[in-house]
Amino acid sequence: MNKEWKVFLSAIQFLTRIRVPAGIDHRAEYLRQAPKYFPVVGWIVGAASALFFLLFTRYISTDAGILASMVTSLLVTGALHEDGFADVCDGFGGGWTKEKILQIMKDSRVGAFGVIGLIMLFGSKYLLLKELPAFLPEAGQTSRLIFYHYRYFILALIAAHSVSRLMAVLVMQAGTYVSDPSQSKSISMTSQRLSAGSIGLAILFALAPFALLPWPYLLTVIPALYVTSALYQYFYRWIGGYTGDCLGAVQQVTEIVIYLGFVVVWRYF
User: Fold this and answer.
1) Does any domain span residue 64?
2) For the chain, how many structural domains are there in total?
3) In this structure, is residue 243 part of a structural domain?
4) Three-state SS for 179?
5) Residue 95: helix, strand or coil by DSSP?
6) CA angle 19, 20, 24 (to 5 degrees)
7) Is 171 part of a structural domain of the chain?
8) What are phi and psi of 177, to 5 degrees?
9) Residues 167 and 228 sit within 8 Å (Cβ to Cβ)
């Protein structure tokens, strides 16, 4: 249990800006096992985002709550995944060979494709999150129990953050890492795949939030899997595998797909 705790803290340290105990020795063996806890880190990010959504919604407005939830996610993760998404937009938008794409993605500067991609990303996320509260079962009713009133919205945030991180883990297990290992901080994770048991545990963690939702919401995982497969095939066709930036792009895109799935399920099921 002590080892698993250290593995979990390694996952938190890798994916977020949350401070972990200084005495934790983050060995390479812990990092290799850390991806199985990525969906749990998604719980934490989603819960923090939901908390600030509720706070700002209660005292200001729903729009302010949505903005607060997005900012919270950025602050908790240090915009790690958004940075990867922007690099992917720049690399695949401006490069026509594997070498050029990888070179552009390593550049710390953000180009036109990255800026446009981030504008579309944040705009899509905001508009979809704005739609979700409108389909609450108790929409239009007032309630002092704000956690209960917005329970589906909270679970949607947690599920989206959790499942989207599982999608990145699945790409890591199925694909080939193509960046220069000597310049990668994630080499310990990408050099060895998880066991079948660890993958199964990650899947259980990712799907756990759906246990508190009606079953149709589980359908949102299907398009997320499809988009993940399509993205990886696209990456493989151009660069022969994936990079850490590609994983960030997978997480961000599938998070939006989950939100879109929730809107569709709420509207038509």
Assistant:
1) no
2) 1
3) yes
4) coil
5) coil
6) 145
7) yes
8) -80, 130
9) yes
* Residues spanned by the domain of 104: 79-268
Closest to 117 (Cα-Cα) out of 161, 87, 78? 87
Which tokens belong to 71? 């900012």
Is this prediction's pTM over 0.70? yes
* Token output for 52: 């600030």
pLDDT per residue, tens digit, the chain (269 aa), is: 688 988 999 999 999 999 988 767 667 788 889 999 999 999 999 999 999 999 999 899 999 999 999 999 999 999 999 999 999 999 999 999 999 999 999 988 999 999 999 999 999 999 999 988 765 545 445 456 777 788 889 999 999 999 999 999 999 999 899 976 555 566 667 777 899 999 999 999 999 999 999 999 999 999 999 999 999 999 999 999 999 999 999 999 999 999 999 999 988 88
What long-range pairs does 220-226 form, CB within 8 A, spacing at least 24?
220/159, 220/163, 220/257, 220/258, 220/261, 220/262, 220/264, 220/265, 221/163, 221/258, 221/261, 223/257, 223/260, 223/261, 224/163, 224/164, 224/167, 224/254, 224/257, 224/258, 224/261, 225/167
In a domain, 147, yes or no: yes
Provide the 10 A C-beta neighbour count for residue 120.
12
The CA distances from residue 102 to 69, 180, 192, 222, 246, in Å, are: 32, 10, 22, 30, 11
